[in-house]
Amino acid sequence: MSRRPLPSRWHDEQLVEALVPTPLPAPPPPQPALMPALPPPADQPSSGVLFDVARPDSAGRVTARPLLRALGWMPGLALRVDVVHAAVLITPAANGGHVVGSREELPLPAAARHLCGITGGEPVLLAAFCGRDLIVVHPSNTITALLADLHAHIFGALDDR
């Protein structure tokens, strides 16, 4: 028995044009969305208030380099420290009993910390008012209460919808 090779059908086959689909026209690629023009960055917030967060060390000092530099307060500057409405107010004063530290830290005296409920290691919010040459130190319990009240209003507005 002899084996003959089977005839190849590939050369005999042809595509039937009626069965080949016509390619659909490709849509043009989408244009990228235009980005809105952003306002130019401001050198300083328009309100003249700068914020920082710090943690007092065991001696009650807080490092506040960016705020001190913005106010132009240099190490050795005499300061007055007062407590008003559970916040520490720090201002330059020629006869102040405290000074800006050599490592650009602010003193928070023990009496002021005690009156405001500031404890070592707990964060405080520092607000520098450039137009008033003043730094206000807010304890974390004040910030927590203010934010809780604000969030209660926000959540109440959401529930009213």
State mean pLDDT (0 to 100 scale): 85
Percent range of helical residues: 10-25%
User: What is the N-to-C order of secondary-structure elements (H for helix, E for strand)?
Assistant: EEHEEEEHEEH
Q: How many strands, what sense, and barrel or not for the largest sheet? A: 6 strands, antiparallel
Sequence stretches where pLDDT stays below 50 over 5 or more residues: none
Number of E-type strands: 8
Q: Strand share of the residues?
A: 15-25%
Report on the architecture of this protein.
This protein has 161 residues and is α+β, with helices and mostly antiparallel strands. The chain contains three helices and eight strands. 22% of the residues lie in helices and 24% in strands. The longest helix is centred in the last third of the chain and has 21 residues, at 140-160. The radius of gyration is 35 Å and the shape is elongated. The N and C termini lie far apart (91 Å). The model has no long low-confidence stretch (mean pLDDT 85).
Brief overview:
This protein is an alpha+beta fold. 22% of the residues lie in helices and 24% in strands.
Q: Which descriptors would you attach to this protein?
A:
alpha+beta; 24% strand; elongated; 161 residues; six-stranded antiparallel sheet
Describe how the helices and strands are arranged.
Elements: E1 49-54, E2 61-63, H1 65-71, E3 78-84, E4 87-92, E5 98-99, E6 105-107, H2 110-116, E7 124-129, E8 134-139, H3 140-160
Antiparallel strand pairs: 1-7, 2-6, 3-4, 3-5, 4-8, 7-8
